[in-house]
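Quick one: structure for this chain?
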Amino acid sequence: MKEYNLELFADYFQFYISDENSESNLGEYWTDFAVENMIAFADGIIGIGTARNMDVPVKLQILNSEPEEDNFKSYDKVNECDLDVKSGKIVIAGCTDYFPDALRIPLINGIYRVRICYGKLNTLDETGLEGEDYYEVYMWKTEFHSQLKILKK
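Got it. Here's what it folds into:
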């Protein structure tokens, strides 16, 4: 298992995890459903919605297998979707981060299941700029594609 603890600037209330060579643009994928569920995705890219338009804490774990069952009690929202890795690297960055400087993580090519857990979304102050919200992302390699799953709404 590898773990990364990051602070990402969630400009436009989002950050991304993508294959390094993905050319997909999520503009048209941020539908009302995607905004409500705080997740949009296309070929090689996932957009993760945030409660704040500021720096947010993000924990990313690359796992060897699917994590143990969890009742998700400590989270407000949990989603799962797939990410195809074709370049051997993923990039994790804020929406407006300078892409060449963004963190790159080497991964074996293949299909990864990505579980996004959103916590303390209701802790924002009256300005919407300060809060204790946090985001945990778990990734593991899988053999088959699966549909988007809203595990906790």
